[in-house]
Design goal:
single chain, Helix Hairpins, Alpha-Beta Plaits, 6-stranded parallel β-sheet, 4-stranded antiparallel β-sheet, 14 helices, 10 strands
Length: about 400
């Protein structure tokens, strides 16, 4: 749903409140009063001058405006001493008021820029990625999002960390489209400021700063529910600390779940018993050349065999297909929630009961992966290839 602009009357009212807050009407009244007084004074002073250049009230008005604006065309000049004194006063006062106007505008522009960098103002991006929470792996996740995107990714960090710490992270990625929204990502108003309804995806990091241990996974489930409740079709990837939390996060609506430290045992044993395997895995899971990537399958190959697609992708761009990933049929949260009365299930039910809403129905389905499929596997419309691009 596209974000709608407020009606013209509301925008005018906001503009008028802003003008009043900056005391611009008072400056304008004082400037107009000074202009009228200066015009009258210069007209009266120059009325008795021999061979005056300021003959009419209109000439005096024009001279006062030009003088207060410090333009000084020189087409009209006072002849009398009193007129010259008034001219000097108009110059000085005009410089003062002009400085106040320009300083007010400049300070507000600078303040607006600072608010944008610190995300005090609402995010207006579309198809951006929300990174909710933060931990020691957050910077690597951020790096991966910036490198993996085929276009310039727009990323919004949503957490409660000190502004100085987050701004330091943003400064380390100069040139990237990064914004920061400070607040609890489980709160609806915080996600609204991050424009969650126009977001493309969300990454929920396990935040152990306020919920240590297993409680961090319960909070991750809460953040996932908050994202899905505001935008059911958003793709949510969640990090879990405990392997047993995967089922609960699925019930909360997470599309993909990464278990922290899940492959440590395999990597350690592979390094000990199969020399070279750990280096290959590290290369595949590192950013840069040779990393695992997802490749769309051309529509004309839907209904054909995997063996044909394998050869085509390999021949066209050197892409070595290792697996086929399929977006499954839609699934509802009602189906996922069970009656086992587990802590997380009870918590999820209580949250929706307190909100006075029914359980959510998500549009996205499960993701199924077939590693090294047989050559006669038939490509489906929802299939995509996972593999390794050819390196130089």
């Amino acid at each position: 749903m596209a974000a709608e602009l407020p009606p013209p009357t509301t925008r005018l009212r906001y503009f008028w409140l802003y003008v009043q807050r900056e005391n611009i009407p008072r400056l304008a009244v004082l400037s107009i009063a000074l202009l009228i007084v200066g015009t009258s004074a210069i007209y009266l002073a120059e009325a008795t001058a021999p061979d005056p250049t300021i003959r009419t009230f209109g000439d005096a008005f024009w001279y006062s405006i030009v003088t207060m604006a410090t333009v000084g065309y020189g087409d009209l000049t006072p002849r009398t001493g009193g007129g010259k004194v008034i001219g000097v006063l108009l110059m000085l006062s005009g410089m003062g008021f002009l400085s106040l106007f320009t300083a007010t505008i400049a300070s507000n522009l600078v303040a607006r820029r600072i608010r944008e960098e610190r995300a005090v103002e609402n995010v207006s991006w579309r198809d951006h990625v929300l990174v909710c929470g933060w931990n020691q792996y957050g910077d690597r996740v951020l790096e991966g999002l910036l490198l993996a995107s085929d276009r310039k990714a727009q990323i919004v960090l949503v957490n409660e960390d000190p502004e100085e710490a987050v701004l330091e992270i943003i400064a380390g990625h100069r040139g990237a489209s990064l914004r920061y929204v400070r607040g609890d990502p489980a709160v609806e108003s915080t996600l609204e400021r991050a424009n969650v309804r126009q977001a493309q995806a969300g990454v929920v990091l396990a935040d152990m700063s306020r919920s240590p241990g297993a409680a961090a996974d319960e909070r991750t489930a809460l953040l996932t529910l908050a994202l899905k409740s505001l935008k059911p079709d958003i793709k949510v990837t969640a990090e879990a600390l405990d392997l047993t939390s995967e089922a609960h996060l699925r019930r909360a609506g997470a599309d993909d779940i990464v278990i922290s430290g899940e492959f440590n045992g395999f990597m350690l044993s592979a390094a000990a018993l199969s020399p070279g395997m750990s280096q290959v895995i590290r290369r595949l899971l590192s950013f840069g050349e040779g990393e695992l990537s997802r490749q769309p399958i051309p529509e004309e190959y839907v209904g054909r065999s995997f063996g044909e697609v394998l050869q085509v992708l390999r021949r066209q761009n050197g892409f070595l297909t290792l697996a086929i990933v399929t977006e499954g049929a839609p699934m509802t949260l009602d189906t996922l929630l069970t009656d086992d009365y587990s802590l997380v299930d009870t918590f999820i039910r209580q949250q929706f009961s307190a909100a006075g809403t029914e359980y959510l129905r998500f549009e996205a389905g499960e993701t199924h992966v077939v590693v090294n499929p047989p050559d006669d596997y038939i490509i489906q419309p929802q299939d995509a290839a996972i593999g390794i691009p050819r390196t130089a």
